[in-house]
């Protein structure tokens, strides 16, 4: 039966991971092929389920599967169940499709690694955990996948943990995500306490019975969770350091799995945010701040992977902004997520291809002129570049411009502020991404004779070509006839109609293209028409120095969260030792002291005991006499 198939989406990559981890070195020779086949098989199941869904009416496409009764305690009952609907199938195909291409790429990229089999086991586990996250039919089921993704990212970011900096980066990502995960835990608790259920269907059904305050609290906690998992302000500091892992991991985290989870969580919870305007506004504000935050950091990075990581932070900010715009923006947030999956995965794999040909060098100031030596990498990376900066007819033009348009059309100061932030982000994106392309592929060579740049093997550039095709065509396919928006309508509710159109789509596109052209032009003047030093200049502005330090993300977190947290911990420890432990010790001292006093009465002499008996008898007679008076 069709309703029994969704579990295989998760079971196949999970089985692949188990076989490789439990099989040990015996699976070294074929483990990478087996893991890739498991991921591809999961994609095949997803594609088949999509064809089944397409054959049904829009209101009948959701597929539910109950696995077993998971928790039954009093009124708290949770089934382990799966929900495959119009929203989750989008993520399923992105996760398994792009994930499989990354598996194929990794066969060649990790070919000389002694632990390649373990790497592929972790990749399969990552895919399975993310699929559970998007297929769970309740917040509690989602939470299991949510934590699984956190574990998988920790294992993959720190895969080369023999290097202390890489191990530290993995711990930083893990801890930052745990902070955000506390938000999801609290949201689930508040939802159950308020609504008596944690299933998506149950929460949606009873949301009208909850107070605005309770719904706002749930929404804010969900936003906290999203900021941690999707690297949004103020929990974004881990994302740049996460580039310590192998490059395929960066592509998987940034394009198909982990950082998209926050966008999914907010979009899936649309019924909560629509009923809690304050929480919804907070989502939009966080998205706007982060898209600018990441763009500014991207301008200052010389490490090609960290520049792309800052770009991801910024682009996820656009998605969070879109999700925070309510029914008019949910579909466009998901559209940008899907198009971003193509062009960002392609560019990360392109960065890995460059590193493969440049002895793992990541400093773009030591590249230059690589288009002649790596023409396929240059072409595929270039198509992704045109997509991310929003040049028509590439994918980003359709998805990003729609978010900017909806932001302006919310009206008032809110619309002007959010729309302007999104437009400014587009200009900065054009600047720093043009900078990446010029420093890497254009100009004169700046690498020494030890480097021997060359094109990567087919197993690496083949997936890059397929992703580049998605960068070209996906935006048009999703917007043609409002295909994606109509597809998602049953999940995120019909798109709201604006009472007044502040800016028409044509005006938004013209403004965006003008700003993109300005950003591209400034980058050409600064990095193509001028000499690029191999060492980053130190006589720069204060703003540039701060941007190079990630806009003081770590310093902010240390001052606002870590130091106060340490002080609170020390205070609680002191209170525990002096008050709680002190009270226990005082009682113990009293008992010992009393015992010492009573011990002196035990002399062992008969005359002493006789005296106490006489005194006791006299006391007893005196007491009886006093009572009878």
Description:
By secondary structure, the chain is mostly helical. Among the domains are: 276-537, no CATH class; 559-628, no CATH class. It contains 24 helices and two strands. It has helices spanning 6-23, 31-54, 86-109, 116-135, 139-157, 164-195, 200-206, 212-229, 238-241, 247-256, 261-268, 270-274, 277-300, 304-323, 330-357, 375-388, 395-408, 412-441, 458-479, 483-492, 505-528, 542-548, 553-599, 606-628; strands at residues 63-73, 76-84. A two-stranded antiparallel sheet has the order 1-2. α8 runs antiparallel to α11 (261-268). It is globular, with a radius of gyration of 30 Å. It starts with 5 loop residues before the first helix and ends with a helix.
Helix and strand arrangement:
Blueprint: H1 6-23, H2 31-54, E1 63-73, E2 76-84, H3 86-109, H4 116-135, H5 139-157, H6 164-195, H7 200-206, H8 212-229, H9 238-241, H10 247-256, H11 261-268, H12 270-274, H13 277-300, H14 304-323, H15 330-357, H16 375-388, H17 395-408, H18 412-441, H19 458-479, H20 483-492, H21 505-528, H22 542-548, H23 553-599, H24 606-628
Antiparallel strand pairs: 1-2
Helix pairs in contact: 1-2, 1-4, 2-3, 2-4, 3-4, 3-10, 3-15, 3-19, 4-5, 5-6, 6-8, 8-11, 8-13, 10-15, 11-14, 13-14, 13-18, 13-22, 14-15, 14-17, 14-18, 15-16, 15-17, 15-19, 15-20, 16-18, 16-19, 17-18, 17-19, 17-21, 18-21
């Amino acid at each position: 039966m069709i309703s029994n198939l969704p579990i295989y989406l998760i079971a196949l990559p999970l089985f692949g991971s188990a076989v490789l981890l439990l099989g040990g070195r015996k699976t070294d020779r074929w483990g990478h092929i087996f893991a890739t086949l498991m991921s591809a098989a999961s994609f095949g199941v997803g594609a088949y389920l999509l064809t089944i869904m397409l054959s049904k009416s829009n209101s009948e496409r959701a597929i539910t599967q109950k696995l077993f009764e998971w928790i039954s305690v009093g009124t708290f009952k949770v089934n382990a169940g799966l929900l495959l609907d119009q929203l989750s199938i989008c993520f399923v195909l992105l996760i398994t499709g792009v994930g499989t291409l990354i598996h194929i790429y990794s066969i060649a990229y990790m070919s000389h690694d002694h632990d390649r089999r373990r790497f592929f086991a972790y990749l399969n586990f990552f895919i399975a955990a993310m699929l559970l996250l998007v297929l769970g039919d309740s917040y509690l089921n989602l939470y299991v996948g949510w934590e699984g993704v956190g574990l998988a990212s920790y294992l993959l970011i720190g895969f080369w943990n023999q290097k202390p900096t890489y191990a530290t980066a993995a711990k930083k990502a893990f801890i930052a995500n745990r902070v955000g995960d506390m938000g999801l835990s609290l949201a689930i608790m508040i939802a159950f306490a308020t609504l008596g259920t944690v299933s998506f269907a149950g929460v949606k059904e009873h949301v009208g019975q909850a107070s605005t305050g309770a719904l706002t609290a749930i929404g804010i906690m969900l936003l906290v969770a999203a900021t941690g998992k999707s690297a949004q302000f103020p929990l974004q500091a881990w994302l740049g350091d996460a580039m310590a892992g192998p490059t395929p991991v960066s592509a998987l985290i940034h394009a198909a799995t982990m950082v998209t989870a926050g966008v999914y969580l907010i979009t899936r919870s649309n019924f909560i945010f629509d009923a809690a305007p304050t929480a919804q506004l907070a989502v939009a504000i966080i998205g706007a701040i982060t898209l600018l935050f990441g763009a500014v950091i991207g301008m200052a990075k010389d490490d090609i992977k960290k520049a792309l990581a800052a770009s991801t932070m910024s682009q996820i900010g656009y998605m969070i902004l879109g999700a925070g715009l309510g029914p008019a923006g949910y579909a466009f947030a998901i559209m940008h997520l899907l198009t971003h999956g193509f062009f960002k995965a392609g560019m990360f794999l392109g960065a890995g291809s460059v590193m493969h040909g440049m002895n793992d060098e990541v400093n773009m100031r030591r590249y230059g002129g690589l288009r002649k030596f790596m023409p396929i990498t240059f072409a595929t990376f270039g198509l992704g570049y045109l997509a991310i900066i929003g040049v028509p007819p590439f994918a980003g033009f359709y998805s990003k411009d729609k978010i900017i348009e909806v932001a302006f059309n919310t009206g008032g100061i809110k619309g002007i502020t959010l729309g302007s932030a999104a437009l400014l982000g587009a200009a900065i994106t054009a600047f720093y991404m043009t900078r990446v392309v010029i420093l890497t592929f254009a100009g004169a060579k700046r690498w020494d004779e030890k480097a021997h740049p060359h094109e990567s093997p087919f197993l690496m550039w083949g997936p890059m070509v397929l992703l580049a095709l998605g960068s070209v065509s996906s935006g048009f396919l999703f917007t043609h006839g409002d295909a994606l928006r109509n597809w998602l309508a049953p999940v995120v509710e019909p798109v709201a109609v604006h009472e007044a159109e502040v800016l028409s789509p044509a005006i938004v596109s013209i403004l965006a293209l003008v700003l993109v052209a300005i950003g591209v032009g400034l980058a050409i003047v600064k990095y193509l028409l001028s000499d690029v030093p191999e060492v980053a200049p130190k006589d720069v502005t204060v703003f540039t120095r701060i941007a190079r330090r990630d806009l003081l993300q770590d310093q902010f977190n240390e001052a606002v969260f870590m130091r106060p947290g340490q002080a609170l911990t020390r205070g609680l420890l002191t209170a525990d030792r002096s008050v709680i432990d002190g009270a226990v010790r005082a009682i113990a001292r009293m008992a010992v002291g009393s015992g010492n006093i009573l011990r002196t009465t035990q002399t062992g002499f008969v005359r002493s005991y006789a005296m106490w008996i006489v005194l006791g008898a006299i006391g007893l007679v005196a007491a009886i006499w006093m009572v009878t008076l």
